[in-house]
Amino acid sequence: MTSQARTADRRLVVLAVFGAVLALTAALWSLAGCAPQEAADAPAPQGQEQKDAAGSGASAMDGQPVNWTMDSDCAMCHTSEAASETDAACPQGTAHKAEGVTCAQCHTDEQALSTAHADVKFGDKPAAKPSVITVDPATCESCHGTLEEVAAKTADSTALTDDKGTTVNPHERPAGEKHEANPATCTDCHNNHSKDLPKDAMKYCAQCHHRGTFECGTCHEIRDR
Predict the structure, then answer these.
(1) Which of 74, 90, 196, 204 is placed for a possible disulfide with 84 were both Cys, Cβ 3.0 to 4.6 Å?
(2) Dihedral Cα 193, 198, 204, 209, nearest 10 deg
(3) DSSP for 58-71?
(4) Is 194 exposed, middle or buried (0-12, 13-18, 19+ CB in 10 A)?
């Protein structure tokens, strides 16, 4: 074989090797470019969507209408009110729970409640506080007795004592034109989910009285007009 032939053969071998390297490089590049896209387009493993939803606090029911009725479980949305029923700092809440009293036994105004829940959907946060307007005072009296009967039970109560030492029976307001024109109802002072009933009652009194003072004339001198 002549030297020219051997040189030509070597060139053919080099070109063949170079071509193989180029082909292999192109194949690897193609795999590297396509693999991530395929992974992104691949469907999530079964249960992954539910796991992601649980981690974010979402639920498969979010956005669906609640379709509220008087038999609905209020605790599903009204979590803070439900917690008060087992909170020792909320004695009236725990007492009602112990007696087996349900939300609908106190919140009896179905029409008002139905209107309030008309557009409510699962996942809505935060849930609005249950309105005391939906509680009928007659419902309270059916268990606790009339205002006069309750007043007799709280004759020695010192829950409403002003800064000057004047104590008022919380269920027997002193006679007066303003009191008679604005009779109090149970829910004016009582909130089953409150942790401080005396403070709630004082807030009601403070709508008319100076804060911390029940009697007129104890702050300012009364003058003839």
Answers:
(1) 90
(2) -170
(3) --TTTTSB----TT
(4) middle
